[in-house]
Amino acid sequence: MATYQHVQQRSLTSFVLNVTQLIMVCGPTLLLLSAAVASARASGAKRLPRSYADPNIPFEPPSSPAFSPSSDIDTASISRPARRFDYCAMAAEESNVNSGIVSYKAAKGCYEMFDFDPKIRDQIVRSVRANLESFYVFYDIAKSPPHMENSDLQPVDLTASLISLGNSTFRDDYSFHAALAAQISQLQDPHTTYKSMCYQQFLFIQPLSTYGVYEDGRNQVKVATVLNKLDPRLTTSLVDCEVTHIDGQPAFEVVTKFAATKSYSKDRGVRLNKAFSYLAHDRTGSAYDRYALGTFAQRTKVPFNVTIEYRIDCSAKRSKSTFPITTSNQKPIQTTMVLAWSALDATMLPYDDASSYHRQFCSQNSIQTVKKFVLDSANADDFGSSKTELHNGRKKSRELYRGSYASFHMLSDGITAVFRLGTESPNKQENYKAGFYKNIDNGFAAMGAAGAKKLIIDLQNNSGGIICWGRYVLQTLFPSTVDSPYIYSLRASPLAQALANATFLYNQDVTSPYEGLVDPETGEEVSDDSWINPGEKLQGREGTFSKKITDRFCGAVDEIKGTADEALFEPEDILILTNGYCGSTCAVLALQLHERYGVRTVAVGGHHGQSMAFTSFPGGAVQANNTLWVQRVQKVFKSMPVLARASQLESLVPQSLPANGQLTFTFRQVMSASDEEQVSEYMRIPSEFRMDYTSARFRMPSVLWEDVREKVWGVPSPSESTVDETGDEESSVPEEMVEEGEEPPGEDQGEGEVEEEDDELERAAEEADREDLEYLGWFDAQSK
User: Fold this and answer.
1) Which parts of the chain span the membrane according to its record (predicted)?
2) 3-state SS class at 474
């Protein structure tokens, strides 16, 4: 039986060797692009002299710190550092030689090579303002947000801040784009972001990631994973040791301060969870999961310092070990390590120097996607055997069914099932909609066949996806749910009202962003603009908004409509488990379950003793300022007679971004299911139950699920349990499961990211039993 350390070392090495595996965003077209990369970088491709990668070449950092949300820089007084040579050429050569790994010096230097252009600044600021001022549905509330517990949300006057930015100068182009991105991030609305794809081409990573626990009466930071390929000093003996200090400061305080600058939730505890490493549901349908590095150890923005210093203490781990320390495995109990940042080359096209880099990734018509990397690290709890003991005599969960989007498990009591939903965003495969529906249908059939009576829905680290997929899950749980349970409203700005009017008056319903909306009272698509003209007031809000609307019909959802008595579980027998990072479609789904049906909620992690929201950014539908969006808006506007195009309105029409930038914004706001005058985004609903992460709960989902069950429902009596006393459980596979490739009825809406995995990783994972008895023995000792 392989030990956890051996497996982790093998899987981490596999990750680095396969670092170029990626998530494709645009399907077959980008597969051709990846082939072009391989061709362009073949042996006959242009190579740069090794001198570009000479580690002895000194690197001169800029004279002032980079822009960050917490820093206030007089950019007008910043002078550019002298350029010694082409850092993009250096990055290209390092990437070729080191299998996609680039030094911090080369990646940072490449980003800083391009001159600041005030004309580019002016055009981008005008376009961003045009979109946000007319279409961002939270534009008014951002100026005066409500008080939200355990939040540090600050007022943001978008117009004033963008005007100020438009009057500022910057030392280089990267600094301008970073400043704009940081300004938008102050909204703490992950649906509303700005990024320049020119400066998304490198992913900065640390060779060590951390996770947070509350143990021994205090918050602690521990080592989650190590990448010894990036730094051979790192060994798996450091895993689960405590990181006491980072750069000389208490580690937990450092990560907390870092998380406060991030925008992915309005809740402090959720931001902290996201900063740490976490175990992500595998999206290939394999029987193991993957550790994500967390945002502290993995960043798209250039880290301010070249290195991070960690003080690591293994004494607590060593003292609780049930296994003897030998000369061969003995390591220092305390150590201090200075670890450098590395950059992973995420480019999708070849480049040789700054000129080709800029042409491929920075110009207006350049490529809009990057490679995405997955840390291949096996989970100790692979659900492969029902007989392996956890600590305190409990058995680990038995897996009932697993697909690419969700997995289903049975706890040791034999009556409590777990439905683990990792995403509502597509995987890369043909008929991905059918794959999602099959995954859900087969999982529920397996739970029914296994005799499940209670259900934990694990939505940790689910960032959402297609809204109709969330509806499918909701209606599978509660078949009597109406077809359109998610109610929205839109901003009724003057430009929005004019576009909505033109949509129907000049037959622009195919092109318009206001096509396909449905009146929730009648279930019929709207046929005129009376739903937005003249507009309505919302309680406590400035400006006017549309009447309540919803999306058009979701075909697959309608096919599973049924009655209340067809539900597999009663609301009181269901729990929602999150770490707060359940966003977008996931958040809307969880809120519907809680507000409409009274399903109880459990949140894990965050700050000990502080309440935490169980969802983040339910916001609503998202729009992107891409070429298609601009073309649609301009086409509808130009359909109006010339005399009807008031110059004041024409000045508000958004234009294409002049550089390779991406702006997304919340276009429609989800209204609360319990209070139709409130928007879900600014309603903080804390979880009813709170739990802390421990090492065991972080490493093995079975431990967390067992603890959640006992906290809410208590330990089941022997009469409730259906587990055979011998522990020999038979797998429940119902005959009515959907066959591979069978198409479900109906169609769904939306597109999303797709993912491609390496089959070699799958084969390597299957060779090892990832349930490590030594590891479990250590947790057993901890619990006593």
Assistant:
1) 12-38
2) helix
Name every residue whose Cβ is closer than 8 Å to that of residue 687 and which is 6 or more positions away in sequence: 578, 601, 602, 603, 611, 612, 613, 614
For 328-367, what is each residue's pLDDT tens digit? 455 668 999 999 999 999 999 999 999 999 999 999 888 8
Sheet-wide strand order for 202-205 = 101-103, 342-345, 202-205, 298-299
**Could you give the C-alpha distances from 360 to 157, 198, 355, in angstroms and in order?**
35, 9, 9
Structure tokens, 468: 């109709």
Digit-coded pLDDT (tens) for 718-746: 656 554 433 444 444 454 444 333 333 33
Task: Write the pLDDT tens digit of every residue in 63-73.
Answer: 333 333 333 33
pLDDT for residue 758 is more than 60:
no
Going by C-alpha positions, the residue among 534, 491, 520, 445 that lies closest to residue 739 is 445
569 CB neighbour count, 10 Å cutoff: 20
Residue 386, classed as helix, strand or coil, is coil
Instruction: Name the fold adopted by 391-481+557-618+683-782.
Output: 2-enoyl-CoA Hydratase; Chain A, domain 1 (3.90.226)
- The ranges assigned to domains in the chain are 391-481+557-618+683-782, 488-556+621-682
Q: Of 478, 497, 612, whose CA–CA distance to 546 is shortest?
A: 497
The residue behind tokens 């003793």 is 609
Mean pLDDT, the chain, integer:
80
Distance between CA atoms of residues 436 and 406, nearest Å = 8
- CA gap 185, 581 in Å, rounded: 17
Answer whether 512's CB lies under 8 Å from 636's CB: yes
232 Cβ contact list (under 8 Å, min separation 6):
none
Q: Record the tokens describing residue 772, joined without a space.
A: 């490590």
Angle between helical axes of 494-505 and 627-638 (0-180°, round to 10) = 70
DSSP state of 651: T
Give me 776's structure tokens: 């479990």
